[in-house]
Design a protein that fits this description.
Helices cover 55% and strands 11% of the residues. The chain is of the alpha+beta class. The strands form three sheets. Strands 3, 4, 5, 6, 7, 10 and 11 form a seven-stranded mixed β-sheet that branches. The protein has a two-stranded antiparallel sheet with strand order 1-2. The longest helix has 37 residues. A hairpin with a 5-residue loop joins strand 8 and strand 9.
């Protein structure tokens, strides 16, 4: 059976020595994040997920959710009890606003706890995770009355939340949705339509579920510009806050899917359900994007979370399993065989996993910090800088993070050999669970197109120019330290490749948009290589400083420096190949006629 140990030491290293969050103590919320408080959150939160959530992960996957004849859904054995403990302990309230019953902690701290939850039980983590996204949308676009009515009980965990976008005939192209909203005399709306792939759409964990639903109003244009957003509760909420009649929304079925069996992914039927407009009519997509962007960062974190737990188990298996001998001669002659750790190719997979998980952890936490600073930084200039960076890097964190999580899961499965395909070892579940993260909240190809099609050009390219400048400045400073020169030079080359690829898009994209589309995915990978490389430069710098100060944890910091060199030598060089892919253009991708693909069209 698999195991999981929350990486508290590594998280503290990033928060304390790399991000240095104590320097933001003067900002709203950060005063609550004292070193002792953060330590308690990480240690106690880690203990909770390891002892309560992780033990029901495998069984939950095996049992799955059950839809009953009346349309109700029950979660696997132990989930309701675990959720009650989650709510009673206040884990869902960490970064929620204090005025609505939250603890007001920085988003970066709750991001760390969310990683642990995902590693321990991804399916469980999705229930409160989607609620948080719905809360963000209501806080940004909901009326004061809507916020007062729904948000406090969503923050407490008493009620859940969902996002309803996709329909049977449309996914990414939301302008095609058919769900309709017709106005009622009392100011409410009647919502009719079918939504699919709705995670946490129906379950028995909360007493109410607050659905945020995209629909079109009468006369709205048949495009994404005609979409409105509505709040549609499972149970109507009375003026005094009590639950009233059951709304005309139901779970038609649970999707039979490849992974995350313990989360109820539902077909949701709206049969004249009562809803209320959120924000302005026909401006619903902008409101939903608030929730979607929060979800995309959360999905990137899923890549990290699954990659981490898969990596941990692969390391343990490689330590315990004996197969063959070291190429340089028997490492342990007294044993019949050496452990898997002596084999360079096993080491390759484990080192790639280590470099990517630790790099992604730093990137996700840095991203969480930018979310905080975009709202709370002292000056408008600092808030704009943070907003630019997280806007640019959201598709990168989602796309590169989930690609890496899946690759780490499959490589970890490979370390196990044949045992990796046996369910009781746990690896095959991690592979299945990780694969869906590359698809939902916009496939990673869609993330790449969002990056090159929207984010690069926004505000005259201000965000990407800011990233180039930050990397260049930190590289220049690092070159003055002999221990960092090699890593700094490798990052400088990779950043140069990213700049050159960006210029190539500018020169070729306007006259032929397919040139941008053909190179988008490689560009996203290239920016991810640079962004994670920047994190490794910062981590290596922090490790050098800690060693110079005589920190007792010498082995930890020396391992950081070795892993940073591995990233520079074995991963950063991919930047050149990615640039060459981009500059090869769209010709061979687009040249072949459809009939030549040989599918008998």
């Amino acid at each position: 059976m698999p195991r999981y140990n929350p990486p508290v030491r590594d998280t503290r290293f990033v928060l304390d020595r790399v991000l240095k969050i104590d320097r933001y103590a003067n900002l709203p919320g950060f005063a609550n994040a004292t070193p002792d408080t953060v330590t308690a959150v990480l240690e106690e939160g880690g203990k909770f997920v390891a002892e309560v959530l992780f033990p029901i992960n495998h069984s939950g996957d095996q049992q799955g959710c059950t839809r009953h004849a009346d349309g109700s859904v029950t979660t696997p054995d132990g989930f309701k009890e675990a959720y009650n403990q989650f709510v009673e302990s206040g884990w869902g309230t960490l970064s929620a606003p204090e005025q609505f019953g939250g603890q007001g902690m920085p988003h970066v701290v709750s991001t760390a706890f969310q990683e642990y939850m995902i590693s321990a039980n991804m399916a469980f983590a999705m229930y409160p995770g989607l609620t948080h996204g719905a809360i963000e949308a209501l806080l940004a676009k909901g009326s004061p009355e809507q916020q007062e009515k729904y948000v406090p009980r969503m923050v407490s965990g008493e009620w859940g939340g969902t996002m309803n976008l996709t329909e049977p005939h449309c996914g990414t192209d939301l302008g095609l949705i058919k769900t309709r909203a017709t106005p009622n005399a009392d100011g409410s709306w009647s919502i009719t339509g079918t939504k699919i792939f709705i995670s946490s759409g129906e379950h028995d964990l909360t007493s109410n579920i607050i659905h945020l639903v995209l629909a079109k109003t009468p006369g709205a244009p048949e495009s994404s510009k005609g979409i409105s957003l509505f709040v549609v509760p499972k149970f109507i909420v009375n003026d005094d806050g009590s639950l009233g009649a059951r709304n005309a929304v139901s779970c038609g079925s649970i999707e039979h899917k490849m992974g995350i069996h313990a989360n109820s992914t539902c077909v949701m039927n709206y049969d004249g359900a009562t809803g209320w407009l959120v924000g302005e009519e026909m401006k619903g997509l902008a409101a939903m994007f608030i929730m979607m962007n929060a979800a995309r960062l959360g999905v990137g974190l899923q890549g990290l979370g699954i990659g981490e737990v898969a990596y941990q188990n692969a390391v343990q298996y490689a330590h315990d399993r004996r197969q063959g001998r070291a190429l340089t001669g028997a490492a342990e002659p007294q044993e019949k065989a050496d452990t898997l750790f002596v084999h360079p190719d096993v080491r390759r997979m484990l080192m790639e996993a280590k470099a990517m998980t630790e790099g992604l952890r730093a990137l996700c936490l840095w991203g969480g910090l930018q979310v905080d600073l975009a709202h709370k930084a002292a000056s408008e200039e600092e808030r704009q800088l943070a907003d630019d960076l997280i806007g640019l890097l959201t598709p990168v964190i989602k796309g590169v993070g989930t690609d890496a999580g899946y690759r780490i899961a499959t490589d970890s499965q490979q370390v196990y050999g044949g045992h990796g395909y046996i369910a009781e070892w746990g690896m095959e579940q991690y592979v299945r669970d990780a694969r869906i993260a590359m698809i939902y909240e916009g496939t990673n190809g869609v993330q790449a197109m969002d990056l090159v099609g929207r984010k690069l050009a926004q505000n005259g390219g201000r965000a990407v120019q800011t990233l180039f400048r930050i990397v260049a400045e930190e590289v220049a400073a690092a070159k003055a330290k002999p221990e960092l020169t090699h890593l700094a030079e490798a990052l400088e080359k990779a950043n140069g490749q990213l700049q050159a690829a960006t210029m190539w898009f500018m020169a070729n994209g306007m006259k032929d948009p397919n040139q941008v589309g053909a190179g988008a995915y490689s560009y996203m990978e290239l920016m991810g290589t640079v962004a994670i490389g920047l994190m490794w430069l910062r981590m290596a710098d922090a490790a050098v400083t800690a060693l110079a100060e005589g920190d007792d944890d010498k082995a930890f910091y020396e391992a950081k420096l070795v892993t940073a060199r591995f990233y520079a030598d074995r991963i950063m060089p991919n930047a050149g190949a990615l640039r060459r892919k981009i500059e090869s253009g769209a010709e061979t991708i687009m040249a072949l006629p459809v009939e030549a693909f040989g599918v008998g069209l």
